UniProtKB/TrEMBL annotation, chains A, B, C:
Pfam families associated with the record: Na_Ca_ex
Main location: membrane
Organism: Paenibacillus foliorum
A GO cellular component entry from the record: endomembrane system
Keyword Ion transport: yes
Annotated function: Ca(+)/H(+) antiporter that extrudes calcium in exchange for external protons.
UniProt family annotation: Belongs to the Ca(2+):cation antiporter (CaCA) (TC 2.A.19) family.
Protein name: Ca(2+)/H(+) antiporter
NCBIfam families listed in its UniProt record: cax
Membrane protein topology class: Multi-pass membrane protein
Length: 348, 348, 348
């Protein structure tokens, strides 16, 4: 009964939102409200699908699939921005996506999970590797920025392209390491589950479908946000790094928080941290390579504000997650840093 | 017998110091010598009182009370400075207090305790949380400084006030977390003590009395220090960040070292680290809020030198304390960083 | 039989290389090829000698001796450079030696060892102390650079000399701590070895002889490298920090990798990390003191590029080694950072 109501709400709100978007009959405010309602439903659908896949595939692979589908949407949006040469917005949204996952998604997951469970645990070896990979991401963004002042434009481009290629190789080797050669060392202990709602094939199909719906719905919401932000006089940097990132990561948010509430904190961490690592070590470098095809190269030189934001996010997330044990106050710490960064980006 | 001699010395030196301060009959050098003698006695008294309270209340709460009483004195002095608009001296003394506790007090405690015991242990979960909170303190000071250059004065003020409010909330939630919801997880193992000297009520009364005496005596000593520093041509930054901080933290010094010698390293760490966290996450933000009342807002933008000092102190203290095990060489490492910072601040 | 062939190859290639160097009859390219062949043999000889000494003296002392002998050669070369006032090249080669050991030697050891063994372990307490000492090294280099802009030249010199003296004291106390007072706490578990090739006295003699041969051979190779680098238009910074450092650390490379392959990862880490700590905390400060004797003081102010390189190397190496467990991917991470730094230094 409850399940049927959910299905009806999901389809109805999605169709209504599509109509509002394409007809243009409603005001921006009404469009925004409908989109928000719909995103709650599709995000809930995605969360269920992820959980079901995690049941069959294990927490880590389930989390990885969720992060990847979530980022696929962002990658597609970013490619269009790169094509138009809007490199500053691309970098702002990469920054926002990294800190949004590390601070907001992870912070909310730990907080919400910690309110229910006194302490939650995940694989400590994975936590340690995640921390080192976050440092690599920060280093890979810091070095081009630190050296760019003494380099010519073409030297900066060469440095960016080479760093991009190296990061892609490092990320692929990480997948080889974590999914193949050291799969068992990094997995969480098996947790007893009840029977899942759907079959294995159905779960994967629904995961795919839900991700597409979230991606499409996110884009509709983003388009109403742009109207909003102009009305309220918000800067491009703030909109790109916070508003778009929050909405664009709706998939990660809903799934991670749902999993944390079910004490599957390992999968929640994999979604939040895994997603930000994928953005930094794979999506960003791939965008640099893709920009080559469009004939106008995007460099990897981020602004000082962006570097500070990514750096502090990585360091506090590493510090909090490195013991493989989490609680509600660690969630608070992450959220506090996110709010402080949000205020600073809003004012600047 | 020995106890009576101590009581006589305590009262006699304190009265003599008061007379010297208010009569103005003695030269600055003599006043300084009397103050130093008196501070040794009152600091010893405070150490005994803290230890006695720690016996009844546990190492952590005892340490917390000691840190709080110690910082109450500093807060009062700082409020007068804020009222007079001497913001640079306030920030220098905040910096000095943070690094003095993290490097000098903690360093001496580990060193002195480590000479007696090969290895000393304290709660590793607490160490981990302390480390994350130290990072939050550094981040909260770094972000206003990093963004201030691109902000107007009023935007910087708004950022400072908002960050201050957020830090106070985060600190209060930390007390809720560490004293209420996760009290047992963060406590040290019970250690067998002998019978304490005083009853529970007497211990708290003496802790309060001793703290007031230390605060008053510190102020008298600081006033002679100012005459001294002018004679020797020391910079305001050096006097504020090192001389005043060392004397003003006499309470923390004496208590922490005494506890380390008695193998109660958990309480010593709580005093040193807890005190610096309280300064960074509570005292400094409260001063910003209080400055609003006086009509002239103090921002949270620290100088590069101050940020470097706080940053390196937090990072080395975090690195050393994170395994919950300490030894004499870790004390040396902290003291070495303190000395290097002292030389740099003296020369600059 | 195999052993005799090795001895013949060792002596023949060394003599040929000496002849090529002093006669000047061959072209730079031929000299370079002969030197490379010879360095493979002498490095192999050194590896065997280190391993044999490690058998008698334990992994840590064996590693320490190897690192010290290896650095003695570099110290001697650097003294000649200091005498000639070539301070920039000295600092570049110090930088190169630190990051070469932390990233290249350690990275290759973990990678090569990790291909053979799924996980390798070394003393986790030692890892923790190594990490803290690396931070001290970074802090000691950061502070003079951060304060230098506000200091006069003579004040910078005073700061440099005082920091140098403090670091030397800290390093000597570290030896006291790690070799005397806490020797057992920091040692690796005994590993069963087969019978070593040589007696105890013979092993030490060969270790000494092999180190001298590597040092001499390195210098010959460096002299051909200089010709090379001019031909290919490489910058002094790149040659000093990368080419010379790689060749000059041949001793550490060969020994560490050989030990990692034999699952003696504790000795490999001691060589790589111990060597870089010795460079930062002992060799560099000693060079500052020695420069005083020559009448022209070398300061401790490193360039931003050098600080970034040393800082990121220390942070990633600390992050990777702190759990006392290593695998092939951790080697990849270190090598990736080394390659990125190499490209940046090459372009700048």
């Amino acid at each position: 009964m409850k399940r049927h109501l959910f299905t009806i709400g999901l389809i109805a709100s999605f169709v209504l939102s599509a109509f509002a978007h394409y007809s243009g009959l409603f005001s921006a405010t009404v469009q925004f409200a409908i989109s928000c309602l719909s995103i709650i439903f599709v995000a809930g659908f995605l969360g269920k699908a992820t959980e079901s896949v995690a049941h069959y595939a294990g927490q880590r692979l389930g989390g990885f699939l969720n992060a990847t589908f979530g980022n696929a949407a962002e990658l597609i949006i970013a490619i269009f921005l790169v094509k138009d040469g809007l490199f500053d917005i691309v970098k702002a949204s990469i920054t926002g996506s990294i800190i949004g996952n590390l601070l907001l998604v992870l912070g909310l997951s730990l907080f919400v999970g910690g309110l229910k469970y006194k302490e939650q645990h995940f694989n400590v070896k994975l936590a340690s590797h995640n921390g080192s990979l976050m440092l690599l991401a920060v280093i890979a963004l810091l070095i081009p920025a630190a050296f760019a002042k003494s380099l010519t434009t073409s030297e900066t481009m060469n440095l960016s392209i080479l760093v991009a290629v190296i990061l892609i190789i490092a990320y692929l080797l990480w997948l080889l390491f974590s999914m193949v050669t050291h799969k068992n060392e990094l997995s969480d202990e098996a947790i007893e589950h009840g029977e899942p709602q759907w079959s294995k094939g159905m779960s994967i199909l629904f995961l795919f479908l839900a991700t597409v719906m979230v991606a499409v719905q996110s884009e509709w919401l983003v388009s109403t946000l742009e109207v909003f932000s102009h009305q309220f006089g918000l800067s491009e940097l703030f909109v790109g790094a916070f508003l778009i990132a929050i909405v664009g990561n709706a998939a990660e948010h809903s799934a991670a928080i749902l999993l944390a509430r079910k004490n599957k904190i390992g999968a929640a961490v994999e979604i939040a941290v895994g997603s930000s690592l994928q953005i930094a070590l794979f999506v960003a470098p791939v965008l640099v390579i893709i920009s080559l095809i469009f004939g106008k190269t995007m460099d990897m030189v981020f602004t000082t504000f962006e570097l500070v934001a990514i750096g502090v996010a990585a360091i506090i997330a590493k510090s909090i997650s490195q013991d493989g044990s989490t609680n509600w106050y660690e969630g608070v710490l992450l959220l506090v840093v996110y709010i402080i960064l949000g205020i600073a980006f809003y004012l600047v």
